[in-house]
Design brief:
- It is built from 5 helices and 6 strands, in the order ααβααββαβββ.
- With about 140 residues, the chain is an alpha+beta fold.
- β5 and β6 form a beta hairpin.
- It is globular and about 35 Å long.
Length: about 140
């Protein structure tokens, strides 16, 4: 059974980064037993017709460089929610960002939700990384 924090990460990820016409499928499958999560394809985030493309872009550099960027550096030692889908065995867990990307429990395929609905990484089974970000900024008057 999913905890409230895990549900929040899943719901906000889908609502923010998955295209309107694709959301019902993602939500239906993610509400099933995790063994069914293999039916989801992380490739949806590489297809402009299936994701909200203005928030999603492919990372084409080394993974080690990703966690040293300004956006991710502050989260490298923070716990994140890791959602295993596709070719990975379905499931969800908390892990540290650095460990999920480079450690013994490296994510094979799925989603690393860092800030619910604002910042996530999607990993495909070929090692591709899609950065999903919709960071809200403060406006000063």
């Amino acid at each position: 059974m999913l905890r409230e924090l895990e549900k929040l990460h899943i719901e906000r990820f889908v609502d923010t980064f998955i295209a309107d016409h694709r959301r019902p499928r993602w939500k239906t499958i993610l509400n099933m037993n995790p063994k069914h999560w293999k039916k989801l394809s992380t490739w949806d985030l590489w297809d402009d017709r299936l994701c909200v493309s203005e928030f999603c872009s492919e990372w084409t550099n080394q993974i080690e460089k990703l966690i040293t960027t300004v956006t991710f550096q502050e989260y490298s030692k923070q716990q994140v929610v890791v959602i295993h889908v596709g070719h990975d065995q379905g499931g969800i867990e908390k892990n540290f960002l650095g460990e999920a990307l480079l450690g013994k429990k490296t994510l094979f395929e799925g989603i690393i939700s860092i800030l619910p609905g604002q910042l996530a990484l999607v990993i495909n089974h070929d090692g591709g990384i899609c950065v999903c970000q919709r960071l809200l900024s403060c406006r000063r008057k």
